[in-house]
Each structure stands twice: as structure tokens, then as C-alpha cells.
User: Fold Permease from Aurantiacibacter luteus.
Amino acid sequence: MLLDFFPSRVLTIYLAKMFVTRIVAVLAMLVLVLMMLDLLGKTGDILAVPGNGQGELLAYASLRVPQLVSRFLPYSVLLATIITLAGLNQNSEVIAMKAAGLSAHQILAPLLLVGVLVAGLSFAFNERVVTRANATLKAWEAVDYAAIPADPATRSNVYFNDGNDILMAATAAGRGADTVLTDVSFYERDDNGMIVRQVDAAHATYAGADRGWALTDASVFDVGTAQTRNEAQLTVAPGLTLDQVELRRVDADAETLPELSRSIAALQSADRRTSELEAKWWHKLSGPLSAVLMPLLGAVAGFGLARSGNLFIRAVIGMALGFAYFVVDNAALAMGSFGGYPPLIAAWAPFFLFLFVGETVLVRTEE
Assistant:
């Protein structure tokens, strides 16, 4: 049995199906157009790599589409809300529902229910698909589309400090004790920051705690004597631990909620600043809930008299409220990233602010 908050079962299904259809249509249109524009800019870079062809273009599209879906799903819900309610208003269906005794909140109830379902699906999609696509695409872009790395966590052009010394590598692949650095350069510096020795090697592996990183077939250049010698085995950077290497990997967009929780805990134990990551952790929860907020912000388009341009003005107001939310949300997240707002406030304040704004507008104008 439906609660009194919802209209009849038939009307609830009718409104929900209409809303879902328009969400899917708007989202498909946005993703297709944006994907084509993105390919126009990226095709040249991808095909510039010898051996790349149609398969690599399709691989890029398969990695980019989940990002576009995740980013523009809330916009699709907003536009679908305005299209749905404006159509109902123009066809006098809203008037008929009000004449039957339904309030504005009851008319919006099926749309809010769909918004809750979309928010849940969006969260699951972000955790299971988008994070993996982000990790793989960033690793591929880091090697200029040469080859998709087998390990999406592979990073390019990394460097680490061991006191005054610096260890640089073209790539860092693997995790934990299995981490492998390639195209390695080690710069040993004195207390004044001057380089006294440079060591180059093709690979470096972790040699163990307090031992550093083992280089094979290393070329050692001594600045003082200006001589170069070869070393079959050499260990450098004894102070560079696995924790330091792992902490440099944290990318909130490429980690699931549990993974990001562990990364934040590790950074906090190392006395590192985590406000940016904490804000993004909370935003992984508040972000999908914007799908619940959009029907409320766009509801202004569904009521009032559909004549003399009034419907168009209301649709513009609903769209403005929705886009204002996204602007404030991004601004608050940016403020939370550099410590201007506490992470919890940065992630949730825009949601509750516009929840109250949307509810106030609806109650003052329709209830």
C-alpha cells in the first residue's frame, strides 16, 4: 500500500516512467555529443602513436564514457525534471492533479523516489566502474597513449626525497615490496644541495627496510673526478621507505570509498595533510544525492499558469537554481580542499542549503 505522500499507484508509475525515460534520453544525448567533441580533440594524439588505430579509439571511448555519465547524470536529472514538469503543466495535467486534491509535494513524490533510486545507482556505478576507468585512463594518458599499462596504478615521472638526495623514475609499477621503478636516476647531494654523484639504471627494486633500492647494471658518474664507472649491483636511498612510495599514489577519483579511507588513515598516521581527500571522501556520498535534489529545484517549472511566457520564465528559474547548486558545490569542494572549510561542511553544506532553498520556493509559491 502506498503512503499518503504518494498519489495513486497508477499515477505514481505514470510519472515515474515518464521521468525515467527523459533522464535516459537527456543523458544519452549529452554523453554522445560530449564524447564526439572529446574524440575530435583526442583522436590526433591517440593515432599519433605508431600501432594505434580504431581499437585504441574504442578503448578510449569505453574509458571516457563512464566519466561523462558520472559527471552529467545530475544535470540530466535536472533537465529531465524541467522537461517533464513543463510538459505536464502545458498539457494541464498538473491542474488536473491539483483538482483531484494532490499537493505539489505529492505530485513531486514519484520524481523524488526516482531521484533516490538514481542516487543509489550513481553511487554504485561510481564505486564499481568510474574509479577503475579513472585509474586506467590516467595511467594511459601518463604514457601519451603508447600502451595501456597492465597495472592501472602505474605512475609516470615520479620522484622521491631521501633527505638531500633525490630518486627519480620514469614509471613506478606494482605495489608494496613488488614495486618496480624503471629508467631510474639517483642524485646524491651534499649539505649545500650540490650534486656529488649521479646514478642511472634501467630498473630499481625494493631491497628491504633500511637497505633502500637495488639498482642493476648501474652507471655511476662522480662529479668530483668527472669519471663514470659501471656497477653490477648498487643500493641507494636507504631512507626511502615503501610507505613514502605508497602515500604518493593517492588519487581520490581513482579509489573506492574503502580504499580512500585506508589511504587517509595512512596519511594521517604519517602526519600528512588530508583535508582535500577527506572532502572528496564525503563528496562521494553527497555527490550522488544531488539526483534527489534536482526534482525539488526544478519543480518551479511545473506549476503556475502556462501562458504569456510564464512557463518559460519558470523553466529558466528552475534551471538557474539547479546550475547554481553545481557552482556552489564545486566552490565549496575547492574551499574544503585547501582548508577554507572543514571537509564535512564543504561536502554537505551546498546540499542542505539548496534543499532548504528548493523547499522554501515550493512552499511559498505552491503550498
Remarks:
- Residues 9-47 form the longest helix (39 residues).
- The CA atoms of residues 312 and 343 lie 38 Å apart.
- The chain has a mean pLDDT of 85.
